[in-house]
Amino acid sequence: MYKLLKKSGKVRRGEFTTPHGTIQTPVFMNVGTLAVIKGAVSTMDLKEINCQVELSNTYHLHLRPTDTVVRKMGGLHKFMNWDRPILTDSGGFQVFSLSKMRKIKEEGVYFNSHIDGKKIFMGPEESMQIQSNLASTIAMAFDECIPNPSTKEYVVDSVARTTRWLERCKIEMDRLNSLSDTINNKQMLFGINQGGTYEDIRIEHAKTISKMDLDGYAIGGLAVGESHEEMYRIIDAVVPHLPQDKPIYLMGVGYPSNILEAVSRGVDFFDCVLPARNGRHGNVFTKDGRINMFNAKFELDAGPIDEGCNCPTCKHYTRAYIRHLFKAKEMLAMRLCVLHNLYFYNKLMEDIRDAIDNDCFEEFKAEKLAQWNEGK
């Protein structure tokens, strides 16, 4: 259940109550595709850096260790030792990202495994069954993430099919939640708005799926090649046509500046691989913008990554040491930078919530954008 605590213009501050705890929004979900954050980060670490929600991937976990194994181990929460909310995406993004290895039909999508080429079929029912086996807190509906740009004719057909798939997802989830041996029979379902960069298709689809009374609504198919300006235009168009008493989730976004812009347009949930991926390559976020830990100027730098940061990395290690670890190809370098970046994102969301609570979000946003000077 979503409870709106405060609203200022389009900016929303809320609480989302789930079977695995209450989520304070706006929130950034930390991405652990295979039930782990890449970079040797444990679930105990996630608690230390104030992660509220972990996100895992249906398609990847279906391949390994398989959702059957996870079910036998008691579901994802027990398997990965995490007692807070988990969101699983549906496999729909892999319809986009594995475009050379799949065929889309009305019944679903035929894949070849990216691991061994094995043939796989996933439709709405299969996606719901896998996610029910995983027993995540929130399951995402199975959809097609449309590449940008796409022809209007293709987008119209794809969105209509995504709507039919959503109806099938809802029926199957209701069935699964009614079974006595379902691990999490309170599993929630979020639908996904699609429509490429066509405002009229996006708005019509938002109106259609809003009538289905789902637990939450996502805006999908953005941050896949279009400009940031186009992305903001679509968010502006879609958000007013989604239910305002349910959480709104912008999938796969993004840079800190993108998050600030989307919060100002009414978005509640975010996720992105960016902070962890950048951290593994020595690219870290600070209050003054991004820096590269391979830079020679850090060779004798005795300061932390970000002065004043309270993450486990900044409290204990210097830039000079972290640079040395990267140059020596030591795994600890990745771990320390991923921890820092995820803490940076989680702390940013906490500061955003505080700014909304204190009626100063616009000033906070302007100050941060000026500090980072990202141009992103």
What does this molecule look like?
The protein has helices at 43-48, 58-63, 67-72, 76-80, 92-97, 124-134, 152-177, 199-210, 228-238, 256-263, 274-280, 312-316, 319-327, 331-357, 361-372; strands spanning 2-8, 11-18, 21-25, 27-31, 54-57, 86-89, 102-104, 109-112, 119-122, 138-140, 188-193, 216-219, 248-250, 269-272, 283-286, 289-292. With 376 residues, the protein is of the alpha/beta class. The chain has two domains: 2-272, Queuine tRNA-ribosyltransferase-like (TIM Barrel, Alpha-Beta Barrel); 280-363, no CATH class. An eight-stranded parallel beta barrel has the order 4-5-6-10-11-12-13-14, surrounded by five helices. The protein has a three-stranded antiparallel sheet with strand order 1-2-3. The radius of gyration is 20 Å and the shape is globular.
- Rg is 20 Å
CATH class of the largest domain: Alpha Beta
Separation of the first and last Cα atoms: 33 Å
CATH topology assignment of the largest domain = TIM Barrel
Low-confidence parts lasting 5 or more residues at pLDDT below 50?
none
What CATH architecture of the largest domain do you see?
A: Alpha-Beta Barrel
- Widest sheet, order of strands: 4-5-6-10-11-12-13-14
Q: Beta-sheet strand percentage?
A: 15-25%
Mean pLDDT: 95
Biggest sheet: strands, sense, closure?
8 strands, parallel, barrel
Percent of residues in helices comes to 40-55%
Please tally the β strands and state the result: 16
Q: How large is the count of helical segments?
A: 15
The SS-based structural class is alpha/beta
The oligomeric state is: single chain
Number of structurally distinct domains: 2
Q: Report the principal-axis shape.
A: globular
Looking at CATH, the homologous superfamily of the largest domain is: Queuine tRNA-ribosyltransferase-like
